Amino acid sequence: MKKSILLFAVLALFTFDINAQNYDRNDAIGGFGIRGGANFFNFGGSDASNNDYDNRVGFHGGLYANMFLGSRIALEPGVYYSIKGTQNDDFANSRAILNYVDVPLLLRLYLSDGLNVFGGPQASFLTGSRFEGDFFGSSFSYETDAITKTDLGFVVGIGYNLPKGLNIQGSYDYGTSPVFKDSDAAIYNRGFKLSLGYSF
């Protein structure tokens, strides 16, 4: 199932890139590209507020494409590998490390040739999950199957196109699927991403 979804997403990226060439847009704005950067994620939700969760730094990287629907509006699918999770300021400095493949479908509005805002749905597919910590001078790590396999959510953000095809952006991921499966706890993946991209 995951392989089929990823294959469809990659094919969609190339199809959208071909369609994007039909529009007379600057290469710094449209086209096919790569993007990566830092993640600052935590557990959010009403039940997460009862714990000492802190932001954990991770990273993301992947591919995107722009398909213009008009002179200022573009549809942007993407496929990214993304490390999320959280850490707890407890005696063991415990932390959750959650690895996902993010597949966002964004609508991007260009306020100018440089400045743009965007938002849209995102499906995230879990590829690995583990808990780590430090206890009496030793470190421990173990994999867990307690994490929900698919996380549905939304992405919103703001970006700016630089010269030579470069772009920067900041975004917020708002997960709506509970992190822990078989649990009624209102705990979700929430966090910021800072990204640097390059359009070909």
TrEMBL record:
<dbReference type="Pfam" id="PF13568">
    <property type="entry name" value="OMP_b-brl_2"/>
</dbReference>
<feature type="domain" description="Outer membrane protein beta-barrel">
    <location>
        <begin position="32"/>
        <end position="180"/>
    </location>
</feature>
<keyword id="KW-0732">Signal</keyword>
<dbReference type="InterPro" id="IPR025665">
    <property type="entry name" value="Beta-barrel_OMP_2"/>
</dbReference>
<protein>
    <submittedName>
        <fullName>Outer membrane protein beta-barrel domain-containing protein</fullName>
    </submittedName>
</protein>
<feature type="signal peptide">
    <location>
        <begin position="1"/>
        <end position="20"/>
    </location>
</feature>
